[in-house]
Design brief:
Number of strands: 4
Strand content: under 5%
Low-confidence stretches: 214-224, 253-259, 268-305
Mean pLDDT: 79
Helix content: 25-40%
Largest sheet: 2 strands, antiparallel
Shape: globular
Structural class: mainly alpha
Number of helices: 9
Order of helices and strands: EEHHHHHHEEHHH
Length: about 300
């Protein structure tokens, strides 16, 4: 983790003399999660690269080598515990969402490896991805084996589990997917929103329902509540601010306590908004053709054979 200027993140401390926006105490600066381990981030990175290739992009050889290094690390670390996506202060654990994202990195990485002709890496990552699925389905379920839970050996819900069907961790019609989505909505739902979790995270203070967590729910998913998707999507759209941004947490309308910095708050009636700025002129046609070739041009290779997982 780095600061805005690329330097080290300062140690976290509380500013007791500040009340916070609408009393959202405590006010902190720095970041106590700067030294945490979050294995889920690799999955998002590799998935983005996979989608880039699938929809017409061409990864350079340099980019592929960097991504390959990331996937190799995942193949050796996916069995380790981590702090997880929500950055709790209660220590490491085997988070099911993190395991799923490690699977995502391995599964999508195998697809990219095929494009670059790295068959050995493809086979190894496919095997590791299958091992992740086997372990999570064996250790990541509740005591009755009906649905996934937040972490191995735990029995509470985690809103990040809503991402499992979206990424295709199991087939869309798998009973575990239906039961998990329904259970998470039941345990954490507050109208169209869901709480990230309802357990002590070591941070302190009550949390409002999370917009970022619930935003996964309106996406295409196999759950029986899929018909509620338009209503959930509309509720999130209505809770966004004047820039279309969703806060990390929000209370339901009509009085939405959105935790946004003052600079992103909508202007008051007696204030003028930011000055209108016209769009920059479009680039001249042929400009890129006249530019010298980039030294990092895509490596020459055969036709792409990437495929996306089923809906």
């Amino acid at each position: 983790m780095y600061s805005v200027d690329g330097g080290p993140v300062p140690e976290e401390r509380i500013l007791p003399h500040l009340k916070g926006y609408r009393g959202s105490l405590p006010v902190r600066i720095g970041n106590g999660a700067k030294d945490q381990i979050q294995l889920d981030t690799a999955g998002a990175l590799v998935d983005a690269a996979h989608l880039f290739e699938h929809f017409g992009g061409s990864l350079t050889l340099r980019a592929w080598r960097k991504i390959q290094h990331v996937i190799e690390k995942v193949s050796h670390q996916w069995r380790d515990p981590d702090h997880g996506i929500w950055e709790p202060r209660a220590g490491k654990r085997h988070n099911v969402h993190s395991k799923m994202m490690c699977w995502l990195a391995l599964d999508r990485g195998a697809g990219i490896a095929s494009v670059f002709g790295a068959t050995d890496a493809r086979d190894a990552w496919e095997s590791a991805a299958a091992a992740v699925v086997d372990e999570v389905c064996a250790r990541g379920l509740d005591s009755e084996g009906r649905h996934f839970v937040a972490a191995y050996g735990h029995d509470h819900a985690d809103a990040a589990l809503l991402l499992l069907p979206i990424h295709g961790f199991l087939p869309d019609d798998h009973p575990l997917m239906h039961e998990t989505v329904d259970w998470v909505r039941k345990e954490l739902g507050t109208g169209p929103f869901v709480h990230r979790y309802r357990t002590d995270d070591g941070v302190g203070g009550a949390r409002a329902p999370s917009s970022s967590a619930a935003s996964g729910s309106p996406r295409p998913s196999p759950c029986r509540a899929a018909s509620k998707g338009p209503r959930i999507f509309a509720a999130h759209a209505e809770s966004s601010n004047h820039l279309g941004l969703l806060a990390g947490s929000s209370t339901p309308p009509p009085r939405a306590a959105r935790q946004l910095p003052p600079g992103l708050q909508p202007p008051r009636p007696h204030q003028r908004g930011p000055p209108h700025r016209s769009r920059p002129p479009p680039a001249r046609r042929g400009h890129r053709q006249d530019s010298p070739p980039h030294h990092d041009a895509p490596a020459s290779r055969g036709p792409r054979s990437l495929t996306l997982p089923g809906p």
